[in-house]
Design goal:
- By secondary structure, this protein is of the alpha+beta class.
- The chain has 14 helices and 12 strands.
- Strands 2, 3, 4, 5, 6, 7, 10 and 11 form an 8-stranded mixed β-sheet that branches. Strands 1-12 form a two-stranded antiparallel sheet. A two-stranded antiparallel ribbon has the order 8-9.
- It starts with a strand and ends in a 19-residue tail after the last helix.
């Protein structure tokens, strides 16, 4: 049986009442607060960067043995990454413990040793950033979190934080790159979806770990993949990612289901639709994706930003996989109940709210019951999926 109800207005487009998509948006004032904090954090780190060239402790032995003058001067550059950068930020549902997050990558241009490792010591770079930020945190009442393996975290308040991961980039290739300036003519930048990003060799971008190790990691590859998805699937991709990130945040306070896993699952579902999503309203797109999520989560979902590597995104424990799959089955059943299982507008809204939470507006007057023979006769029975018993799991 076909669709009995149309509820696209509840997802996007309402004017008097906030639609679901609008309710997921982060206010401009809160974004501005994050950007103001980012500016002050960057300035504090830059003000301390002169120490790197001078102090031997920042350098591996081959460079520590040199005079300070013969070592390259290091001035960090910054590049915001993650959901904030590629416009997929979603206002958390449970505040706290869920928080707004701005990831601001710090890049140091440095020579690499013969073993392929950066000439700088990862541990001391963490110490530099933390020493630079302590006075600022005391002044602002922020909390400096030094427990993270791959970043320094500044806790701004109970609802937001800024993470500073530290990357190295080869000096000879990154010397002229300004991550904030539009030096397009140099050929070292590419423009996608209105953003500029530096073209650096991915295999030579290294992420510092607090234990002193470096790991190959290029966050710009993920951003390029997101922009490629927007080019392929349109803005439907971004809205759908927000919808299902909102579902996750409503369903769990903490969860193994990471944002990149949701994004990859949405892209896979849209790929399975083979372009037919372009003719669908947002309620139908959400329905079609929801029906495909259980199968996608049961299978192996690889990181699409690194197709040459086998990075499994949903490499969960058996218990976590069962939890996520059952929750996605319940989501699919609720979407079926809402759009195919009833010709009652109140029941449509109730089913959508079971799925996505109270950020779906209670506006049965905006639900259109389709004038079909099926609607006049009877509603199709929804798939019987028991409500899963869900417990908190480690955040992904």
């Amino acid at each position: 049986m076909g669709f009995l109800a149309k509820a696209s207005a509840l997802f996007v487009g309402l004017r008097v009442t906030a639609s679901y998509h609008q309710a997921l948006q982060v206010s401009n004032s809160r974004k501005s607060s994050l950007l103001d904090a980012r500016r002050d954090i960057r300035n504090a780190i830059r003000a301390s960067a002169a120490r790197i060239q001078i102090e031997d402790g920042f350098w591996e032995p081959a460079y520590a043995a040199r005079s300070a003058r013969s070592r390259p001067s290091i001035m960090p550059k910054f590049f915001t990454q993650g959901s904030f950068a590629y416009d997929l930020l979603v206002d958390p549902c449970h505040k706290p413990p869920q928080q707004l997050d701005l990831d601001d990558g710090m890049y140091v241009r440095v020579d690499y040793l013969e073993n392929g490792q950066p000439a700088l010591v990862a541990k001391t770079l963490f110490a530099l950033v933390e020493d630079a930020l302590r006075p600022l945190c005391r002044e602002r009442g922020w909390i400096l979190d030094t427990s993270k393996l791959t970043c320094v975290r500044v806790q701004l308040n109970r609802e937001s934080h800024v993470d500073i991961p530290i990357y190295s980039a080869p000096r000879e290739l990154a010397e002229s790159i300004s991550f904030g300036d539009a030096q397009i003519r140099s050929g070292q930048f590419a423009k996608r979806a209105g953003r500029l990003y530096a073209k650096l060799p991915s295999d030579q971008i290294m992420l510092a770990h607090r234990d002193g190790t470096w790991q190959q990691s290029d966050p710009l590859e993920l951003q390029k993949w997101v922009e490629a998805c927007v080019a392929r699937y349109g803005e439907d991709f971004r809205r759908a990612c927000r919808y299902f990130k909102g579902w996750r945040d409503h369903r769990w306070e903490h969860c193994c289901l990471s944002s990149i896993t949701i994004m990859a699952a949405v892209a896979e579902a849209l790929e399975q639709l083979n372009g037919t999503h372009r003719n669908l309203d947002d309620d139908r797109i959400a329905y079609e994706i929801a029906q495909r999520l259980p199968g996608i989560f049961r299978g192996e979902l690889l990181n699409p930003a690194f197709p040459g590597q086998r990075i499994v995104l949903n490499d969960w424990t058996d218990d976590d996989r069962t939890t996520v799959v059952k929750a996605s089955e319940a989501l699919a059943a609720d979407m079926h109940s809402a759009l195919k299982g009833t010709a009652n507008a109140d029941l449509v809204v109730q089913a959508l709210r079971r799925a996505f939470g109270e950020r779906i507006p209670y506006r049965p007057d905006m639900v259109e019951i389709l004038p079909t023979v099926a609607a006049a006769v009877a509603a199709e029975a929804p798939a019987l999926v028991p409500a899963p018993k869900v417990t908190n799991s480690t955040s992904g």
